[in-house]
Amino acid sequence: MAGAEAACIFCQIANKSTSATLLHTDEKVIAFQDINPSAVRHYLVIPLEHIPTVKNLERRTEDYSLVSHMLEVGQTLLRRDAPQCTQYRFGFHQPPLNSVNHLHLHCLALPYMPRWKCVKFLSVGSLGFLEAEKLLEKLKPLPPIISKV
Which residues does the Swiss-Prot or TrEMBL record annotate as the active site (predicted)? Predict the structure, then answer.
């Protein structure tokens, strides 16, 4: 690892340089429990590649596919581990409110615990918590323009 990635705790987890227990691993992402959970179940899904924040994602197939895959992994884990829950939230904190500069999807099986932690996950304009589905809408590639000749 080089520079910022070497100091990034999530890059260290992705490279298995820590004792974090992984809930899922594949060629694109890994998932693990949040060390300071805010809900009955609170998992993080991160890309293996160091991507600092949602602001570094673009409207292109690769980024859309990555976020979609992250969401699918999170949904599968919560359905497996918290089937009794009826409400789930999936999303990203946006700068300057993100705690770690490595893209990470919060996967929450509600209720919040303790209840006041819901404040961290409010959607308030461009500074709040960005729901995964809203991010996918922003990243969805535009259809190709077909010119008639």
Answer: 106
